[in-house]
Specification:
This protein is an alpha+beta fold. 56% of the residues lie in helices and 17% in strands. The strands form 2 sheets. Strands 1, 4, 5, 6, 7, 8, 9, 10, 11, 12, 13 and 14 form a 12-stranded mixed β-sheet that branches.
Amino acid sequence: MKFWLTVRIAIRALSKNRLRAGLTILGIVIGIAAVTAMVSLGQSASKLVESQLETLGTNMLAVLPGAMQRGGIRTIDAGSLDISDVDAIRSSCPAVNAVSPLVSAGAQVVYRNANWNPKSIFGVGVDYQVVRSWNLAGGSFLSERDISSTNTVCVLGQTVVRELFQSENPIGRSVRIKNIPFQVIGVLEAKGVSMFGQDHDDIIVLPHTTAAKRLRSRAGSGVDAILVSSPSSNLAQTAAKEVEALLRDRHGIGPDREPDFRVQSTTEIAQMLRIIMGTITIMLTAIAAISLVVGGVGIMNIMLVSVAERTREIGIRMAIGAKSKDILRQFLIEAVLLSSMGGMFGIALGTVGAAGLTMLVNWLTPTASWPYMVSIEAAIVSLVFSALIGVFFGYYPARRASHLDPIDALRYE
């Protein structure tokens, strides 16, 4: 019996009882839809995490003060980092291509009749732009002369510009921070809001020397943090090791002692988050795949019923020359058609479901901005897997049909 003729016979047999066929593939549809939706949402979450980490800076390391024991209480050692550490990292760590100190301050900013309290006011170095991968929307960034001369100049984020200047061009204007006039020399490009609601654009950056002396009245050369970047993600771990070894040596801390600083890497954070999201996706997919097994059992049950109902038909076909392998192939094709149709409907439903869930998440959390992604690989794998389910669960009924005795089958009532 020719293959395509067998396929046509299988389609004709399934179409005789469409309601039963539809109910049979329901488990496959739900399982494939759940798997497709879960994998798509997992990829969307991974893409969102990567985009959020890119806003922090490419291949960035943050060197933060460590903890210290004081009066039985563990506190942050705010004086453990200084400008000399920044200079040493810049000159002695080959895997580092940019480094900037960071001095934080808090104050209200006033321009004419408008005022605003930015979330972040940072004193930084000239490499801050490179470390944070943050381009300018206009004007210029801080120069070495601004830092060495403690100039009262600043660069604004987009949120500060919107709150203070509305549609007015801020470059060249003067704002007051703690009643000190600062000239606006540049505006940063928009970075948006993080998935946790943090507005990256609500920021003012100015020379770290100015922030320390004019806004914080700090004596000495201490800094709150040191931001470091490497040329590529492959060198991020090397850069972290170089920075840690250098600072241990400078601070006189042996390898067996806890350092007075911490090195955090966005690359390591990204890798950890990918592992977490991947694990969650695999777990959810495995749970969703249980319904595929249930659907496969349903296919087996219906195929056994079909074999029983069509016993006389099987006997007639064998009597006029059909071989056992022809009967086996026919019922296998019917099982594969059932599961494949369920797979196709499931992929369509899963794609729509992923889109709907993405829209729902973005509506509930407007700051998240989840991207909508469809996993083509997951759809293909799901379709192949659904066909394999048809083969696996349809083989026993098909084999049982092919081993029927023609005489007994013809006598079957």
